[in-house]
Design goal:
Layout: E1 10-18, H1 23-35, E2 39-43, E3 47-49, E4 64-73, H2 77-91, E5 109-115, E6 120-121, E7 126-127, H3 136-146, E8 150-151, E9 156-157, H4 158-165
Antiparallel strand pairs: 1-4, 1-5, 2-4, 3-4, 6-7, 8-9
Helix pairs in contact: 1-2, 3-4
C-alpha cells in the first residue's frame, strides 16, 4: 500500500532489531515489506547493541542489530501492528516474548515506538512504547531520526531521554 495523495497519514517511528540468522538481510527484508504499508520517510543507521532483558543469559546472548525508521501510513495503529506481526512471521519469527518472562533471541523484532502525538494503552499495544525510555538500543537510533520529538507521556525529547541513560 503506497501513500495516496489526499489520504490522511499517521507518522510512525518503528524499531527493527534481531540477533540470530542473517540479521542485516532480515532488516533489509523488513524494510522492504514495511515500505508496502506506506512510505518509508527516513531510516537510521544500523547499531550493534547489547542484549537487554535476557536475565542471567545476557552475557551469552549474541549482540543485536537495531535500526529505526519513520513510516507514513494511512493504517491505524492496531492495523499496522497486525501487519508488522505478519512481517515478522514471514521473515521467520515464530514466537513473541511472554510478559514477565526473560526475552529470547529472535531473527526479527518490529516495535511501534511512537505515532504522531497518539497515546494508546491497551493489552495489544502501548504508544509511546512503554519501555522505550529505558532502552538505549531503542533511543539511540530513534534519536538519530526524531531527536527533537517530545514524548508527551514523559515530557522529554527523545534526545533528552537518550542522554539521560548514556
Amino acid at each position: 500500500m503506497k501513500t495516496v495523495v489526499g489520504q490522511s497519514n499517521h507518522h510512525y517511528l518503528l524499531l527493527l532489531g534481531g540477533n540470530i540468522g542473517d540479521v542485516r538481510e532480515n532488516l533489509s527484508k523488513a524494510r522492504a515489506l514495511i515500505a508496502e504499508l506506506g512510505e518509508v520517510i527516513k531510516v537510521s543507521s544500523i547499531y550493534e547493541t547489547q542484549p537487554w532483558g535476557f536475565g542471567d543469559e545476557t552475557d551469552a546472548t549474541p549482540i543485536f542489530l537495531n535500526q529505526a525508521l519513520e513510516l507514513a501510513s494511512p493504517l491505524e495503529p492496531l492495523k499496522l501492528l497486525g501487519k508488522l506481526q505478519k512481517i515478522e512471521i514471514v521473515i521467520g519469527r515464530n514466537h513473541k516474548t511472554v510478559a514477565g518472562q526473560p526475552y529470547s533471541s529472535r531473527c526479527i523484532d518490529i516495535d511501534i515506538l511512537l505515532c504522531n502525538n497518539i497515546h494508546i494503552d491497551t493489552l495489544e499495544l502501548t504508544i509511546p512504547h512503554k519501555l522505550m525510555h529505558l532502552r538505549e538500543f531503542a533511543l539511540r537510533p530513534a534519536a538519530e531520526l526524531w531527536g527533537d520529538w517530545n514524548v508527551v507521556t514523559l515530557n522529554k525529547t527523545i534526545a533528552e531521554l537518550y542522554s539521560s541513560i548514556c
